[in-house]
Amino acid sequence: MSDIRSDVAAAVGRVLQEWGIADSVDPIVELSARPEFGDFSTPAPLRAARARRMAPMAIAEEMRERLTAYELPSIAGWTISSPGYVNCHVVDARWAPDVMAAALSLDSSVAVSAPRRMVDKGRTLVEHTATNPNKAAHIGHLRNACIGDCVVRMLRRTGGEVEVNNYIDDTGVQVADVAVGLRHLGYHQEPNETFDSFCSRVYVQVGRRYEQEPALLDIRRQTLHQIEAGDNEVARFVKELANRIVDCHLTTMGRFDIRYDLLSWESDIIALGFWRHAFELLRAAGAAVHVDQGKHAGCWVMPTDDDAADDDDAKVLVKSDGVATYTAKDIAYQLWKFGLLGRDFNYRRWDPQDHSSPATTTSAPGALDATLYGRASRVINVVDARQAYPQRVVRRALAKLGHQLEAERSIHLGYEVVALSATAAAVLGLPFQDGKNIYAFSGRRGIEVRADELLDRAVEAVAIKARDTASAVLLASGAVRYYLQKFTLNQVIVFDFDEALRTSGDTGTYLMYTHARAAGILRRVPEERMTGVPALHPAERALLHAVDSYRYALHEAADGLSPATLCTYTLGLAAAFTDFYEHTPPIAKEQDAVVRAFRRRLVACAKAVLADALHCLGLSAPEEV
């Protein structure tokens, strides 16, 4: 089937080739900003002005003449517009059926392709969520998971091979704090209190006890050493504690349809000697050096230059007490991700009775095929923007070990944090401070909105409009996911309950309602064979363009690792459908058979594309609400 936008781009490229500037000017073709000028436009004349040393409008006129001479059968005519665009009007009778056929041929088992884009043939490993296994997941963790899951969905939908990892830091200080509380301070779970919520409460209270009883810090230090040593009562207790918390996390994320291929445990990195091996590699390469004086005395560091002793910005890999830092273990893990470590985990199913559950690493013998995991050609770490420096250190370590390509293909997908609005802080009972509009989350102080709590509130908000409880849960989870994904990654989300749970405007609920509305029309209007394309109403033309733009928008979002880009497109598609619905006569009452069949098919196309986009965003596409 023909793709007129691609045909136009090929024709523009042919002109650029004839002018000898195809290497320096891209044949970009976009939707026209002014429908009266045409359906598609190219800014190529503007970009060619320097190379041709001519005025853009003169170049545009020459390009228009050449394009007209090509006599493309799908193009009705060419125009130019200031300051240097060439525009074209399509032949509706050719264009509309092609757009519709492409939309209705969408198949979840077949990748959505785009012209001139090469899909990375290697495996992309995406690590996201990585919630410490010491407390319930909160909205900040959920934003990370939603971003990561949406990126995974987009990459897979555009043909990429993707593995999803969730890193479990079960040897860190946070889980040690909860262990101290449970083993030494006598805290007990309340009736009807979930285990992860109980541990969140313990974590906060233990932090307060440290301030009152500093001697407890010695117990924490002993606990940490016992965890890292492994194969002792404390290590086994902490492992069981972490297992129970991870079960809670998987349940929470499952409520938002977020899944993983592999759970990677930090304790296995230690037990299997990953860090020790990586440390020897770094020492041999001169990338890890011992410091004898200064503030890093007794530490092993990765210097930013060749003089470690005087390098105050050097990253500590092993502290003076011999404990490896988080960044040190991240380096070993990153080497494993690329298949560069020379060591591997063992693997088993997380729930042996459920083959849909993720795999998990293990230091004991495992039954799963090791070649299914790691060995990536690109690694994307979804980590908040505050971790930019440690992520740079990890890349630097790869480069110092001679893995420059892998260093370049180590991507930190950073994002800004979630904070509380003053209104949300009041809902949570936090004391007001004059002039303060934003309140930072703090798990240590118990200032947070838990993911399960937010979803439960969302279910209550939409239940009044939902068909049943199951529909309410789908609408609510979609609403929360969209809210956390629609912001660009460099935006701080100032969380507000009312804004997050709105059901109209730029919301996930609106998108899902739009899909249900389209489904309702299709149920009411019998399908007929389309026999022609009537004169297009402006709203019909706009909806066709929105449908036609899907694969370009999806690939732009996937290439840019940008859920917000796909959110913007999907909102535009829903708005175009709403405009079509509100500004054209009801299809069920249409007497002209040609118009009726065409419009019903257009609704089916919009529904098909909207469903595909919603899936990539992790939202449901309900037939009814």
Automatic annotation (TrEMBL):
> What are the annotated GO cellular component locations?
cytoplasm
Source organism superkingdom: Bacteria
- Per the UniProt entry, what species is this protein from, by scientific name? Candidatus Amunia macphersoniae
User: What is the enzyme's main class?
Assistant: ligase
Q: Which GO terms describe its biological process?
A: arginyl-tRNA aminoacylation
Q: What is the designated name of this protein?
A: arginine--tRNA ligase
* EC numbers, comma separated: 6.1.1.19
| Keyword NAD attached | no
GO MF annotations, alphabetized: arginine-tRNA ligase activity; ATP binding
Q: Which InterPro entries match?
A: Arg-tRNA-ligase, Arg-tRNA-synth_N, Arg-tRNA-synth_N_sf, ArgRS_core, DALR_anticod-bd, Rossmann-like_a/b/a_fold, tRNAsynth_Ia_anticodon-bd
> Pfam families per the record?
Arg_tRNA_synt_N, DALR_1, tRNA-synt_1d
Q: What SMART domains does the entry give?
A: Arg_tRNA_synt_N, DALR_1
